[in-house]
Amino acid sequence: MGKDKLRKFAENLTFECFVQPAFEEMFRTDHPLKGNWRKEFFHNDNPIVLELGCGKGEYTVALAERNPDKNFIGVDIKGARIWRGAKTATERKMSNVGFLRARIEFITSLFAEGEVDEIWITFPDPQLRTKRAKKRLTAPIFLEYYAKLLRKDGWINLKTDSQHLFAYTSAVIEKFGLKCEVANNDIYGSGYADEVLSVKTAYEQMYLERGLPITYTRFQLGERKEFPMFDWEGDDILEKDGEIERKTESGTDARSKSRGCLHTMPCKKEEKPAKQD
Ligand SMILES: C[S@@+](CC[C@H](N)C(=O)[O-])C[C@H]1O[C@@H](n2cnc3c(N)ncnc32)[C@H](O)[C@@H]1O
Questions:
Q1: Cβ 60 under 6 angstroms from ligand 1
Q2: How many angstroms does the Cα of residue 208 sit away from the middle of ligand 1?
Q3: Domain with 8 in it: what CATH number?
Q4: Which of 32, 52, 60, 136 has the most crowded CB, counting CB atoms within 10 A?
Q5: In a domain, 40, yes or no
Q6: Beta 71-76 vs 18-19: how paired, if at all?
Q7: Which helix (H) or strand (E) covers residue 22, if one does?
Q8: pLDDT tens digit string along 11-66?
Q9: SS3 (DSSP) at 157
Q10: Is the Cβ atom of 76 under 6 angstroms away from ligand 1?
Q11: Which candidate in 76, 125, 161, 235 is catalytic?
C-alpha cells in the first residue's frame, strides 16, 4: 500500500468528524452510536441525512454548508477517498458533518429505526451484470436495509450517469408501488438541475466530460418494510444483446451500436466490489 494512503488513514483517525467502527462493533451487533448519533455525536436534535458511497464526500460537505440546521454523514468503505471530505469538513470547522468508514451492508447495525431523515446515493457502481443486480444500491435488499433506519416519509435521492441503473430503479419503484417525486433522465439537458442538484462529485465530473446525461430519481419507501428480490427484464435485454461485453471493451461507445438498448452507459469496466482502501 502506498505511503500516501497510509498517511491519509492515519490522519483520518485524528479528525473529530471521522468514525471507523471495528468489525466486531457492527457484525451481528449494534454499534454504540446506533440510536445515539444526534445526542452523542452531533450534540443536537437536528435531522440526519446520509450520503451512501460518498467517495470524497462532495454532497455531504455541500449540503451541510447549505443546511446548518441538519446533520450530514458520508458513508464509504474507502478510507483514502473519505479522507478528502473529512479533511475539508475539519478545515472548515463544520460541526454538522460526519464521515463513517463502513460497508453499507452494515448500516442497520449503525442506525436505529427512524434515525435517518433522508438518503443520497451519488453515482454508485451500476453493477450491470445480472448476477450482481443484488449489489445495486437501489436493489430490494438495500431498500430493506434503508427501510429499517429511514423515516417512512424520508426521501431517497439517486444521482447516476447510468441509464440502466436509472431504468432499474424506476422498475423497482413501480414494482413496489413506491411514491416517486422525480425521475429525470437528463437533469442538465432538461434544465431541471437547481443549485443543489448542480453540485458535482468527482465521478459526476468525469461522466460530464464524456458528454453523458446525468439522471436524478427521488422516491420514498413509505410504510413498506419488505422488498423481495425480483428479476427485471431490462437485465435480460442487456445480457442478450451482449451489451455488457461491448461496454467493457475500452473506449467503445456502446450507444452507437446498441439495438433497443435500455441505457447509454459509458464504456467503463464494471467496478469490482469496493476494497477497503
Ligand atoms: C463510483 S464511486 C462514487 C463516489 C462518489 N459518490 C462520487 O460520485 O464521486 C462509488 C463509491 O461507493 C463506495 N462503495 C461501493 N460499495 C460500497 C459498500 N458496499 N459500502 C461502502 N461503500 C461502498 C466506493 O468505495 C466508492 O467510493
A1: no
A2: 18
A3: 3.40.50.150
A4: 60
A5: yes
A6: unpaired
A7: none
A8: 999 999 999 999 999 999 999 999 999 999 999 999 999 999 999 999 999 999 99
A9: strand
A10: yes
A11: 125
